[in-house]
Design a protein that fits this description.
2 helices; alpha+beta; five-stranded antiparallel beta sheet
């Protein structure tokens, strides 16, 4: 597990913000195509042609997987897709804590919480 200083995490926020927005777009598109892809698969089983929707769904799923891997590769933990809530593991007073940020907050981290506290336990830095 990568541990971040506040400065390192703040420096990553612009990239993280872009990745999170792409993840949210892909996730929204997945929801749209999920039912369409299911119908296409059922239609194909019955001899119909609906493969285009299935291919589109597979492409979106691939994009989503790549975006998630990109975020994970940075060492960032995604906690809530819809809110764009993420944590950066960090050391504080000799113990591992989580620096907490979500889309819509400022350009710098302002919160942290213990590993078991979650969002409700956020404390100002």
């Amino acid at each position: 597990m990568k541990l971040f200083t506040v400065e390192e995490a703040n420096a990553l926020l612009p990239a993280v913000r872009q990745i999170l927005r792409r993840i949210q777009r892909s996730r929204g598109r997945l929801g749209t195509y999920r039912d369409v892809a299911k119908l296409a698969a059922e239609g194909a089983e019955l001899g119909g042609g609906g493969m285009a929707s299935g291919v589109a769904y597979a492409n979106i799923l691939t994009d989503f997987t790549v975006e998630m891997a990109e975020l994970e590769g940075l060492g960032v933990q995604l906690k809530d897709f819809d809110r764009g809530l993420i944590d950066f593991p960090s050391l504080r007073d000799g113990r591992v804590v989580l620096l907490c940020w979500q889309l819509g907050e400022g350009d710098e981290l302002e919160w942290w919480h213990d590993l078991d506290a979650g969002f409700g336990g956020r404390t100002p830095l």
